[in-house]
Amino acid sequence: MKSPVELKYITLAQIIGCCLVILGHSFPFVTPYPCVLMEGCRFLYTFHMPLFVWCSGFLFAHTMQTRKTFAQYASQRALKLLVPYFLISLIGLVPKILASSVLNDTLNMDAMEIVRAFLVPREGVWGHFWFLPMIYLIGVIGYLLDKMSKKVGTWIVITLVAFALSFFKSDVLGWFGVNDVLLYFMYYSMGGGK
75 pLDDT exceeds 90? Predict the structure, then answer.
């Protein structure tokens, strides 16, 4: 296993990726900016998430030897990714419900809308955190695939099928962020060296 000193380039890639995400979200598309700034922002959106997912796949592959069981891995990842996602969604849902009841004098949110706020990440109260369930699911799938098969061909086929399926837009694929998992699994696999 490489020492932390040898992984400085991954840390640097993560820092650059974080800064690019912040920069990309600093320019709302509804405001007219000079063409150069808008094109620069569009350019950032072409690679900042793939870079993030690639780094996650690389770190997954790098630390694979230190994991013990699937249950330990899945529960540790859930604590780091899903608990914050659900807490943030819950915290954001309370003001939305209150504002809805005050502005309309009635509570318009039905049970299905509340469920969708948690389980359809991009449509959630704070859709900016859609990547948390996605990266959790990709990591869990990656762990299972790594344990089930050490053959490179299996990863390539699954990655290509996932990428092809990502072009099918469906409400069903939005649940649990499955569409995002399908779209970004390729980058995760590339980062893991599979």
Answer: yes
The encoded tokens of residue 69 equal 């069981």
- Which residues lie below 8 Å from residue 83, measured CB to CB, with a gap of 6+? none
CA atoms within 13 A on the CB side of 178: 12
The answer to whether the Cα torsion of 61, 63, 67, 73 is positive or negative is negative
Amino acid at 134: M
pTM over 0.90: no
CB 190 within 8 A of CB 56: no
Q: Give the whole-angstrom CA distance, residue 136 versus residue 172.
A: 18
134 in Cβ contact with 49 (< 8 Å)? no
Q: At what angle do helices 131-148 and 35-62 cross, to 10 degrees?
A: 40
Burial of 134 (0-12, 13-18, 19+ CB in 10 A): buried
